[in-house]
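#structure-requests
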Amino acid sequence: MSFLSIIETILIGPLKLVFEIIYNLAYRMVGHPGLAIIFLSFVMNILVLPLYKQADLMQEKTKDTEARLAPGVAHIKKAFSGDERMMILQTYYRQMHYKPASALSGSVSLLLEIPFFMAAYQFLSNLTILDGVAFGPIADLGAPDAMFTIGGFTVNVLPVLMTVINIISSALYLKGFPLKSKIQLYAMAMFFLVFLYTSPSALVFYWTLNNLFSLIKNIFYKIPNPKRVLQVLCAVAGLGIIVYTVGFFETQSLKVKLVLLAVGVLLLVPLVWEVLKKWVKLPQAKEAPKPDKKTFLLGSLFLTVLIGVHIPATFIAASPQEYVNVYNFHHPLWYVAASAAMAAGLFLVWLRVFYWLANPRGKVLFERLVWILSILLLVNYMFFGTDMGVISSTLQYDTAFVFSRTEQLVNLAVMTVLAAVLYFTAVK
C-alpha cells in the first residue's frame, strides 16, 4: 500500500463501506437497482443530517461574526496600509476574540461534501449490477442518460436537472450571506455539472436526489415551526408505509415486511412522542453530565485496535503462509495495515467528526454508545460465531453463513439485554 492509498482507505474507505452496506440492504428489500439508489440517498441524507445541521450553524455563526467585525475591518483597511494595517488588524481581531482561521468553519459543509462525493463516485461508478438496467426514463443506469438528441448532439438531462436544483437550493440557503460564500456554492454547482455530465446516470441520479433533499431542507428552514411540519410529514409517510406493507406489498419474505413495518413505526415515533409529552408528566431532568473527550477517544481507539488490528492479526497468525503469493509478494502484515487503516478511518476519523460537531448532550451520548459498542463487539467476538468454517487467502469463507433461528434469537437477546444494562449503568 502506498501512502496515498492508505490516506484514501482512511478517509474514503469507511464511507464506501457504509454506502455498500446500505445499498445491499436496500436492494435485498426492494429488488431493483434504481429503487435501491433512492433508498440509499434517503438513508445517507438522514444519517448525515445532524452533521450538516451543525455545520450550517457554524457557518451562520461565522457569517454573523464577520458581519459584526466588518465596519471595524473596513475602517482599518481604509486608514492604514502595509505592515501597520496587518498589525492593527491582528490587534483588533484579538480584542474581539476572533481568529482569522475561524473563517474556515464557514466552509465545513463544503469540506464534508467532498469525501462523501468521492465515496459515492467510486461506489456507484463501479457497480456492475447497474449496467444495462433501465429505470423510468433512464435507459441504462450504468451509462449517461442521453435522453434526447439535438442536431446530432446528445443531451444528458439529469446533470442539468441536478444543477438547476442545486442552484435553487443554494439561492434559498445563501440569502443574506456574503458574496464569498455565494461564489463558493455556485462554483461548486458548475463543477458538478461539468464533472458529472458524462458520468453514469446512477451516480448523477443519486446526486440529484441529494440536491433535492437539500432543497427540501432549505425550504424547511424558511417556514415557521419546521420541526412540527417534519413530524407530521414523517408520520404520514410512516402510515403510508405501514398500510402499503400490510395491504398491498406482495412478498414471501417475512423479514422484508418486518423491516418495512419497523421503518413505518419509527417514522411515527417523533409525532407520537411530541403528543405524549403534553399528556405525560415527565420527571425533572437532572443536571446534564459534561462531555469527556478522553472517554470517547479511548473507546474509539479500543474499537480500532480490536476490529482493525487484533482480529485480522490473530486470524492471519494462525496460518501466515496462506497469505503469501510468491509471484506477487506482499508481506501478510499489509492485510493488517489495510484493515487498521479502514478501522482508524471509521472510528478515529469519521466518528470523531460526528462527535466534534455534536452538541454537549450529543457528545455524552456518543461517549456512552462507543463504550457500549466496544463491550458488545468484544462479547460477540469472544462467545458467538467462533466456528464459522474455512476461509481462503482472499478472506472469503468457502461456505455462506448459516445461523439457525435459535442462534439468531439468543444472540439478539443477549446483546439487547447487555446493551440495556450498560446504558442504564452509565446513566448517573
